[in-house]
Structure formats: structure tokens, C-alpha cells
Amino acid sequence: MSTSTATETLDVLIIGAGVSGVGAARYLTTEHPARSFAIVEARGVAGGTWDLFRYPGIRSDSDLYTFGYEFKPWRDKQAIADAPRILDYLHETIDENGLTDLIRYQHKVVSAAWSSEDARWLVDIDRLDTGERIQISARWIFCGSGYYDYDEGFSPDFEGRERFRGQIVHPQHWPEDLDYAGKRVVVIGSGATAVTLLPAMADETAHITMLQRTPTYVIPLPREDDIANTLKKVLGDKVGYAVTRQKNIAQQRLLFELCQRFPKQARRVIRKINQSQLPDGYPVDEHFNPPYNPWDQRLCVVPDADLFRTIRKGKASIVTDRIATFTENGILLESGEELEADIIVTATGLNIKVVGGIDLTVDGEPVALTDTVVYRGMMLSGVPNFAMAIGYTNSSWTLKIGLLCEYFCKLLGHMDRHGYDSVRAVADPAMPTRPLLDFGAGYVQRALGSLPKQGPKAPWVMSMSYYTDRRLLRGDVADENLRFATARDRSGERVTV
């Protein structure tokens, strides 16, 4: 990379042109129209997750009345929507808010260095299209890059992998020209990706098998929300969307709370639903009875019961076993059974990468994420003028992003009114901490040792409750945990509040 000497100056640099980054840009546009900002995106298009993943059937497993933005009604009839519809919605948001020219594609952020002297970040960015490294100076960074690695998905080291004579595919890197017509396909995994792939591919394959080590809770939901569509017809798109959104937020929270408080009863209900959708005599307890309680990991949604319908038709099957080794012709299981395959899909999860793997320094000192504690779910202790967006794991991601963006804009306004140019959250060194995410999913558990921490109570808790966060983030902007600073006064001394 050659280095450009010119440095652009902005008020806010937004990293990522996905759901979080575009949302932040819209809130800045409406709440702080005079403030300068830009969005930098490492890829060549906007959309984040919804453009990166190209596997068959990709869709949201949250309803779009809660996954959509509060400020922009979801008008499509589908509530559990596929990726093209979500991308259309996102691009409409970009166009309607005049954000098109503010997004810089092929701009990958490498590092960011905070200077207390200048009260600014100096951000190193590689322009992937020109091979040039540029720098941007920004008062604030809003990191909307999500929390997983866009470059590489997680794939375990499978014994004998190199012996397999067929094709091995990870859903994060789905080949555009993959031909699976008439082929035998084995999908390794039991999460949202796997339960999406089976019904999406089954009609074209010779047979498709989901190979899981551990079952997952799977619940069917209608792809279209009849109540929502009726409300929109009667009340109009805007009001109908708002009412449906509150209804679905309450439903999501109620389901989570019931599962947490009454896990045995919830397990029985889910099992009964599964049994009703499967063929008579199907081994439900073998393939749909997880060893953990509901919502210790995310529930998998199947729209219009498509997974169950595919199994009933005999086009797909589920095998619960452990892999002994890959063979030339497929996978040998610990039970001794061999699954023959032409294509193996490793739907084995993601790698977490908080703040996009950016190297952060504060006044020359590297920031060790594991030494930081997250404040109000968006700031890292000891790191000034830096916000990050991590959504909910037990509900729609965007519900939290909207609240974080609101609070971010309120915080900027508070600083303007008082003449502050920087703020950092300060955690009590004696405060007990625990892992950032209370979630049993494998991709989370693998990464806990590299993530920031959370504290025992608000505002240091990484809350997963919309109602709790709404009170916190729409309440007072400042508290005793924030340290604000003004610019240098004429004597050259920094005044800290």
C-alpha cells in the first residue's frame, strides 16, 4: 500500500455500511444535520451480512417488523423475509436519506489512534480499489461492523478432510456456480443456516442430509404475519407498522421470559409442536431434543414449517451423530454409519471479531479489548469518543441498534451544549466483571476470552432486554461513570469534568 499524505477531517467516521452503519448515518442526518460524517465500507457494496451471504434461501430469522428500523415501515407482506427483500429495504433507506454519496466502498479500516492532545482519532484506511493507504481524522468513531469476521467463517479441523473427493463449501463463501442438482449433499450443522439450506436445496438435490452433533430447538412461524398485514391495511403502513412492531417486541420478550422461567414446560411445548409437524413415529427425541434449555441458545425459526414439510416429503433427513473422519466418498460417523456425499456444506458457524479487528491505541497505548468493560452496551471503558454497535442475541438485532443510535446522538448534543470535545467511560477497577455475552452458542463461547467484559449492573451490563435498554438509553445522557473534557484553555491546561 502506498500512503497518501492528505488527511480528511470529519466529525464522525462510521465503519460499515450494513444495517448498523446505515442506521447510525440516518440518525446523524436527522438529529445532527450540520455534522460532517462518512461511512467507510471494506466491501464493494452496502448490505453487510445480507449481501455477504449468498447461500440458497438466506433469510432473516427475526420478523422484519422488529428487525426493520423504527423510522422506516416494513411494507412487504413477508414478515420472515429473504435477503433480496432486506437488501431492497436497506438500499431504500440509503436513497431516501441521501446517504449514497456518503458511503466510500473498498475502504478497509486498519487502525485508529486517539490523541488526547488533539481530541481526535487518526484512522488508517486501506483503499482496496487503488492500493493506497489514506488517513482520516475524526472526532468520533461509530463502529457498525457487527461482531463477526467477514473474511473467514468457522470450520473445525475435520479428520481426513483432504481425502474427500467431492466439494466442501462453507456458507460464508458460497460459490456462485455451485451445481448441486441431482447431487447427494450433507450439511454439517444444526443452526439457522443449516435449517434454511435443507428446504431451499432439497427439490434439486438427489437427497440432502443435515448432520448434527447436538439438536437445536426449532419452531415454525408463518412467513406472513396476517395480523400485521391487516393492521397495515386498516391503519396505513406507518401506524400499522408501529403497532405491529410493539406487538412483536412484546411477543419476543414474552417467549424468552417464559422459556427462561419455565424451561421444562417450554421444552414440552416445543417438542409437541415439532412432533405434530413430523411423520408418525419419527424419532423426535433423537433429532429435536437439545440437552440445554430453550433460549440458552437462539431458537431456530422455520417459516411456514418448511423444514418439517421437506422431511415429511422424504426429500431431506436428519442424522444426529459425531464425525469420526471424512472419507473419499463422504463422512464416517462414530456409530459406524457412512454418509455418502458429493458435496459437504460446513454450516459450522462464525468467528467473532469485535470492532472489526481494528488496532486501537489511546495516546500511544494499545487497547486490549479484554481489559475493557462495555458501558451502556456501546462504549469501551477508557476509550474516548468511540461507539460500537452490537445488537441482541435473543431478539431482533436492530432493536438495540436503534436505541444505541438515539443515545449516541443525544450524547453528541449534550457535549455540544457544554463545550466538551471528548468523553470516556471510566470503570471502577474493583468492579467485578464477567463475560460480555451470556449466551451458549458455540461461536460466542469460542470467543469469550478475547472480548470486552460486562459488569454486575447497569450501566455496565450488556443488556439483552429491549425494555431495560429503552429505560437506560432514553433516560439521562450522563452519569458519574462518564468523564467529559473540554478543549485546551488559553493557559494550555486541559479542563476535565
From TrEMBL:
GO molecular-function terms, A-Z: oxidoreductase activity
The keyword Oxidoreductase is assigned to this record: yes
Xref: Gene3D superfamilies: FAD/NAD(P)-binding domain (3.50.50.60)
Cofactor annotation: FAD
Chain segments annotated as coiled-coil in the UniProt record: none
Protein's UniProt keywords contain Oxidoreductase: yes
Keywords in alphabetical order: FAD, Flavoprotein, Monooxygenase, Oxidoreductase
Entries under InterPro entries matching the protein: FAD-binding_MO (IPR051820), FAD/NAD-bd_sf (IPR036188), Flavin_mOase-like (IPR020946)
UniProt cross-references to Pfam families, sorted A to Z: FMO-like, NAD_binding_8
EC number per UniProt: 1.14.13.-
Family recorded in the similarity comment: Belongs to the FAD-binding monooxygenase family.
Protein name (Swiss-Prot/TrEMBL): NAD(P)/FAD-dependent oxidoreductase
